[in-house]
Amino acid sequence: MVFFRAADPAGLAEWYEKYLGVDDLRMYLWQQEAGTTIFGPFSENTDYFGRAEQQWMINFRVDDLDGLMAKLRASGIAVETRADWNSEVGRFARIHDPEGNAVELWEQTHQ
């Protein structure tokens, strides 16, 4: 489970459901496919998350990064990509939720 504070919990839950498919978030029943989970503390001085006050960043594993980016952009959501975010583990993109939290999207390299 991931718990975090929000100025508008219901609105934020609806946004995550509508754009990222995180269904039943308000009821804590979201099911996901089994796969890699990384617990990765960063330095307190990192600028990787964006805002200095952001204490966490969630990363969602996706099957079709290009398709999801197209859908998000068509909905008016800004999508960031940078070549240096990509590595041998896959491709990455970043969006921000309505409260300004960075959300990373990751298409895993299949080996």
Describe the structure.
There is one protein chain. With 111 residues, the protein is an alpha+beta fold. The chain has a single domain, classed as 2,3-Dihydroxybiphenyl 1,2-Dioxygenase, domain 1, CATH 3.10.180.10. The protein is 20% helix and 16% strand. The chain contains 2 helices and 3 strands. The protein has helices at 9-20, 65-74, and strands spanning 58-61, 90-96, 102-108. Strands 1-3-2 form a 3-stranded mixed β-sheet, with no helix packed on it. The mean pLDDT is 83. Residues 1-108 form the VOC domain. This is VOC domain-containing protein. It comes from Sinorhizobium meliloti CCNWSX0020. InterPro entries: Anthracycline_SecMetBiosynth, Glyas_Bleomycin-R_OHBP_Dase, Glyoxalase_6, VOC_core.
**CATH hierarchy: architecture:** Roll
CATH superfamily: 2,3-Dihydroxybiphenyl 1,2-Dioxygenase, domain 1
Number of helices: 2
Helix/strand class? alpha+beta
**Total domains, how many?**
1
| CATH class categorisation | Alpha Beta
Q: What's the alpha carbon Rg, rounded to whole Å?
A: 14 Å
Query: Per the principal axes of the C-alpha atoms, what is the gross shape?
Result: globular
Query: Helix amount, in percent?
Result: 10-25%
CATH topology title: 2,3-Dihydroxybiphenyl 1,2-Dioxygenase, domain 1
What does the largest sheet look like? 3 strands, mixed
Amino-to-carboxy terminus distance: 28 Å
SSE ordering: HEHEE
Strand order of the largest sheet: 1-3-2
* Strand residue content: 15-25%
Can you count the beta strands?
Answer: 3
Average predicted local confidence, pLDDT: 83
Which regions are unreliable across 5 or more consecutive residues at pLDDT < 50?
A: none
